[in-house]
Amino acid sequence: MNTSHCNNCETEFEGNYCFNCGQKVLANSKLAFSNIVKDFFDNTFNIHKGFFFTFWNLIIQPSKVVKSYIQGKRKTYTNPTRYLVIALAALATMQYWAQMNEVINNDNFEGFPFLSEELNNSARLWDLRLLTDWTLLGNLLEALVLPLGFYWLFRKLKYNYSELLILSFYLISNSIFITILLVGLPKFVISYYTPTFFVFGMILVYYAYALFNFFKEISLLRRLIFIIFGLIIFFLIRFLLIPLILAVLFPI
Ligand SMILES: [Zn+2]
Predict the structure, then answer these.
(1) Strand locations in 21-92, DSSP E?
(2) Residue 48 Cα, ligand 1 centroid: separation in angstroms?
């Protein structure tokens, strides 16, 4: 095994990692099957960097996890984009195994009284599509839309959109894991249908708790009102405006 130069970028080694590209000295040894197994788990579930540690900390102190990342402490918890990808993959798996879509299909979409029935129906179908067959698009849109209201309401705190996007990625991901635990798991294991309003309520409580801690520099009452407003803005855009725009652009 050649331990003097990195096989990836030819830089001379100092210590256990290449200081130029980050590759391990160990990568210079002959490839073994165990490397592939370890790589698979590292890259898909990110277990070595504490996926479960990140999940748990996002439940008990979400604000701390998000702020660590924003403030540049980026190796302690699973990276937010990777965390979202893991959540989306887990959701796709669970939807396939537990047929979670059956549960969601009972959801009702009210629509706008001032719009034609045709447009309302199309919007309703788009709303369902984003919750079931097109969850990847649905969740990405949710993640992008969630920061908007909060960016505007809490502008005094000078967070930029990207920083709030980190908050959004972590929260949306954990709402996916909460859905999997509350809907997918009971359906898969004991064929129990968890009521949608209960899951929705739990996610709402989780969001409110996380946001309440995240914006703690703002006085209590103001913060409460802003969070309620921010969540209303989010739900209006995500569940009414986006399905409507999609219905106008691509009628079903
Ligand atoms: Zn290197």
Answers:
(1) none
(2) 21
Which secondary-structure segment (H or E) carries 199?
Answer: helix 196-214
pTM: 0.83
- Residue range 215-229: average pLDDT? 95
How far apart are the CA of 71 and the centre of ligand 1, in A?
27
Query: What token pair was written down for 26?
Result: 């160990």
Minimal CA–CA distance to 161: which of 176, 144, 177? 144
Distance 69 CA to ligand 1 centre (A): 26
Phi, then psi, of 24 in degrees rounded to 5: -75, 150
CB 53 within 8 A of CB 138: no
Q: Residues with Cβ within 5 Å of ion ligand 1? A: 6, 8-9, 11, 18, 20-21, 23
Length of the chain measured in residues: 252
Residue 39 has pLDDT above 90, yes or no: no
**Domain locations in the chain?**
51-249
The whole-number average pLDDT for the span 112-124 is 82
The greatest distance separating any two alpha carbons of the chain, rounded to the nearest whole angstrom, comes to 73
Report DSSP letters for 137-159, one per residue: HHHHHHHHHHHHHHHHHTGGG--
Q: If you compute the radius of gyration of the chain from its CA atoms, what whole number of angstroms results? A: 22
